[in-house]
Specification:
Length: 154
């Protein structure tokens, strides 16, 4: 430890920070970047105040945890999750009309846009509602090949 205290200079922290930040390109976790930024911050603090190695090491750990906590608290949960490729995301709210009552709580509907590859589809009402021919509907959920619809009130 005494060897490190005598040989590690402020620019070593900066180089370590750049290496860790660049490693983020190879490790797509977006975690290593915060260790790199903490190392760069420690290098700048060491340059300005001339701290000892033990203090720098504790400061690096503290800043790394702090940066990670900030990332997970404020940025990670706000990442948008695209719904492209998911049936629910692609077909939600597509309007249509009931064209035939098939009985047993199933209806044949014609949609304005293709749903699961076809404009005419056997649908089921979502919840306890029922429909008549000519009722306007829209897609509520798609569960595999079951299309659940809800009524549209005008």
């Amino acid at each position: 430890m005494e060897y490190l205290a005598q040989t590690v200079a402020w620019w070593h922290w900066i180089v370590l920070g750049i290496i860790l930040s660049a490693a983020e390109i190879l490790i797509p976790s977006f975690i290593v970047l915060w260790f790199g930024l903490a190392a760069i911050a420690v290098g700048i603090i060491d340059l300005l105040f001339g701290t000892g190695f033990t203090t720098e090491l504790y400061l690096w750990i503290l800043l790394s945890v702090l940066f990670l906590a900030i990332y997970f608290r404020f940025f990670k949960k706000h990442e948008p999750v695209p719904s492209v490729g998911q049936a629910e995301g692609e077909y939600a709210d597509i309007p249509g009309v009931i064209v035939k009552d098939l009985g047993g709580g199933r209806y044949k509907a014609r949609f304005d846009l293709p749903v699961l590859g076809d404009r005419v589809w056997v649908v089921e009402p979502e919840g306890e509602s029922s429909f008549r021919e000519g009722d306007k509907i829209k897609v509520a959920h798609v569960y595999g090949q079951i299309v659940k619809v809800k009524g549209v009130s005008e």
